[in-house]
Design goal:
Blueprint lengths: L2 E4 L9 H16 L3 E6 L9 H14 L5 E5 L4 H14 L2 E4 L3 H13 L22 E4 L6 E6 L3 E6 L7 E3 L7 H11 L4 E5 L5 H11 L6 E5 L2 E2 L15 H6 L4 H10 L12 H7 L10 E2 L2 H14 L2 H14 L10 H8 L6 H6 L12 H4 L7 H13 L5 H15 L3 H13 L7 H8 L1 H16 L2
Parallel strand pairs: 1-2, 2-3, 9-10, 11-12
Antiparallel strand pairs: 4-5, 5-8, 6-7
Helix pairs in contact: 1-9, 5-6, 8-10, 15-16, 15-19, 16-18, 17-18, 17-19
This protein binds glutamic acid.
């Protein structure tokens, strides 16, 4: 059975590069009716924080990338790592190295001076007796031959063993090192496919060698190229949001971000919009591009608006409710969010923008001086007609409201364009809103009439 894993180190928020490899691992597992595992690689005690763990879990939940197992925590596997190290020492696939810092530094200086790649010289590899003092444990990397593997993205990759030195697998305090814990966990967790960022590509031959020394069959590997900013440099904070949850804060829907990340560096014909079911069906590791992909914020915005317009209204409303709260709007004090979304979806690309531009539906409006100034006395009669028409409407629907405006225009021989902007200002305090009839409809009769009164009163008292 296919088993994939996402193995973030909790040293910060979940960034979108990580989310993309998580998504690919998830999609592949789902497609193959396999299992997707979440493993928190928290052995770097100095840099790992519980806030980061929580941030990762929150982001996985928001993205709805459900895992079948985990979260596993590497810090809970220390006994197991210790046992495997002991086994390797017994089997002679690892050895204790007593070399002092000074020796290693001198070695390094020498090698650098000779323009050689700095690497451990294997001095303790053949020690017959235990040395003295502190030691680290090193893996006995094969001295010759090549490590070859078929990367599912990159094709066949080869590394000469002479390029790989004897990796430290346990520090002098006994704690295991990164490449070793990954190996033990991938082995124990029966991972069949490792999909991860290509910044790990140089770790792979080392990990394969250790797996082989343990008698394990290495998994398949797929190394995904990094994400670049629009300037061709590695994506970083300089380019804008990089954390998944910041995208939430900026008003993106998880579906939009997932669709965007799936397509970023992977393609299926010319198709741009994919439901989750389609992604599961069509995703193919072999179609991941070998070259880095550039992040395109415009396209993400476009997708976001698409999902705002077409997504399950209840789900979009749920996400919008969070934003309304964030910007301090009481969403219970006005139209339903589903109605609001229908009215605003064409006009806003993010839910944050929608929340910010919808305050007048839920809270009182104050007319600023320049807005008040537009209510000239000669327009009062037609505004009064509109106001009375709204009061007397037998049914409160869009057509009826439209009819009130139309009739007022006829009665006063004015074009709608002459006074509708004022009605809009009265309703919203500003000049931009959904079509005026929809705006009035959603504001509700009582409030709409009150706002007309307020606006006209302002003129009379001026
Ligand atoms: N913990 C590693 C990281 O966050 C990932 C290791 C892996 O996927 O093998 O970069």
């Amino acid at each position: 059975m296919v088993r994939t894993r996402f193995a973030p180190s909790p040293t910060g928020y979940l960034h979108i590069g990580g989310a993309r490899t998580a998504l690919y691992s998830y999609l592949f597992a789902r497609q193959q009716q396999g299992q997707f595992i979440l493993r928190i690689e928290d052995t770097d005690l100095e840099r790992s924080t519980s806030e980061s763990v929580q941030a990762i879990l929150d982001a996985m939940q928001w993205l709805n990338l459900q895992y079948d197992e985990g979260p596993y925590y590497q810090t809970q596997h220390f006994d197991r790592y210790r046992d495997v190290i002991a086994d390797m020492l017994n089997a002679g696939t690892a050895y204790r190295c007593y070399c002092s810092k000074e020796h290693l530094e001198a070695l390094r200086t020498e090698q650098m001076a000779a323009k050689q790649k700095p690497r451990y010289d294997g001095r303790c590899r053949h020690l017959q007796e235990a040395g003295e003092g502190a030691f680290v444990v090193r893996f006995k990397n094969p001295l010759e031959g090549v490590v070859e593997f078929d990367d599912l993205v990159r094709g066949t990759l080869r590394f000469a063993n002479t390029e790989l030195d004897d990796l430290i697998i346990a520090r002098s305090d006994g704690t295991p090192t990164y490449n070793f814990t990954v190996v033990v966990d991938d082995w124990d967790m029966k991972i069949t496919h490792v999909i991860r960022g290509d910044d790990h590509i140089n770790n792979t031959p080392r990990q394969i060698n250790i797996l082989r020394a343990l008698g394990a069959t290495p998994p398949h590997y797929a190394h995904v190229p990094m994400i670049l900013g629009s300037d061709g440099k590695r994506l970083s904070k300089r380019h804008g949001a990089v954390s998944v949850m910041q995208y939430r804060e900026e008003g993106f829907l998880p579906e939009a971000l997932l669709n965007y990340l799936a397509r970023l560096g992977w393609s299926y014909g010319d198709q741009e919009i994919f439901s989750m079911a389609e992604l599961v069906q069509f995703f193919n590791v072999n179609n991941i591009s070998r070259s880095p992909a550039a992040f395109n914020p415009e396209k993400l915005l476009w997708l976001n608006q698409h999902y705002i317009k077409t997504g399950d209204p209840a789900h979009v409303a749920n996400e919008l409710a969070w934003h309304m709260e964030q910007v301090g709007i009481d969403a219970n004090n006005g139209p339903t969010l589903v109605d609001l979304i229908a009215a605003q979806a064409e006009r806003t690309k993010t839910l944050r923008e929608m929340a910010e531009k919808s305050r007048y539906f839920y809270a009182d409006v104050q007319l600023a001086g320049d807005m008040k100034a537009q209510f000239t006395p000669e327009l009062m009669p037609v505004l009064k007609t509109v106001r009375d028409g709204l009061v007397n409407l037998p049914t409160w629907d869009k057509e009826a409201i439209h009819h009130v405006l139309q009739q007022a225009a006829e009665m006063h021989a004015l074009k709608l364009g002459k006074f509708a902007p004022l009605v809009r200002i009265a309703m919203t305090g500003g000049t931009v809103s959904p079509p005026i009839d929809t705006t009035i409809l959603l504001i509700g009769r009582e409030r709409a009439v009150l706002r007309m009164d307020q606006a006209m009163l302002g003129v009379m008292s001026a």
